């Protein structure tokens, strides 16, 4: 059985890129995965900083879709790795989220975004579900990773 997630109104909404769980990457604070993902479309440009500091993830998404400046030339080649980095950072920063993700066991995770056939399953349930796939990859990494710093003496 699959576990579907999407918005604040659904069970497992914390799996969403819009969930309010901040993290740091490369010394910068990002309020949500959505902020990071959208900002990475324009690294080194002031647009990235505008997105990083947006009031909420919906505004960050809208700013990332506004093409006032061109997307980075390698965007299609790197976007999955960027999402993977953000998801990993989110779930390693917040122990309660780590436990939530691990608690999904081996269930298939599906972003039930009705209009997104790349990151989600889309309305027809035929989408690629890349966010779900990445969450399951990170879940496997967490399951196999040591907790804490046991090797420190």
Task: Characterise this structure.
The chain is mainly alpha-helical and 153 residues long. The protein has a single domain (2-144), classed as Tetracycline Repressor, domain 2 (Orthogonal Bundle). Helix content is 42%, strand content 9%. The chain has six helices and four strands. The protein has helices at residues 33-39, 46-52, 57-65, 75-93, 95-102, 130-144, and strands spanning 2-5, 23-25, 28-30, 108-111. It has a two-stranded parallel sheet. The chain has a two-stranded antiparallel sheet with strand order 2-3. A hairpin with a 2-residue loop joins strand 2 (23-25) and strand 3 (28-30). Helix 2 packs antiparallel against helix 3 (57-65), helix 4 crosses helix 5 and helix 4 (75-93) crosses helix 6. The longest helix is centred in the middle third of the chain and has 19 residues, at 75-93. It is globular and about 40 Å long. InterPro entries: NADAR (IPR012816), YbiA-like_sf (IPR037238). It catalyses: 2,5-diamino-6-hydroxy-4-(5-phosphoribosylamino)-pyrimidine + H2O = 2,5,6-triamino-4-hydroxypyrimidine + D-ribose 5-phosphate; 5-amino-6-(5-phospho-D-ribosylamino)uracil + H2O = 5,6-diaminouracil + D-ribose 5-phosphate.
């Amino acid at each position: 059985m699959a576990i579907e997630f999407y918005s604040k109104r659904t069970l497992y909404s914390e799996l969403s890129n819009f969930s309010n769980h901040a993290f740091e990457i490369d010394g910068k604070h990002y309020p949500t995965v959505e902020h990071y993902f959208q900002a990475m479309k324009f690294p080194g440009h002031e647009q990235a900083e505008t997105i990083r500091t947006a009031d909420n993830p919906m505004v960050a998404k809208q700013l990332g879709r506004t093409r006032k400046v061109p997307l980075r030339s390698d965007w299609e080649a790197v976007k999955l790795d960027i999402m993977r980095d953000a998801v990993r950072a989110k779930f390693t920063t917040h122990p309660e989220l780590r436990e939530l993700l691990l608690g999904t066991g081996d269930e298939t995770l599906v972003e039930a975004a009705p209009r997104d056939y790349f990151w989600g399953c889309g309305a027809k349930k035929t989408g690629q579900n890349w966010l779900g796939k990445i969450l399951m990859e990170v879940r496997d990494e967490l399951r196999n990773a040591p907790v804490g710093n046991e090797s420190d003496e």
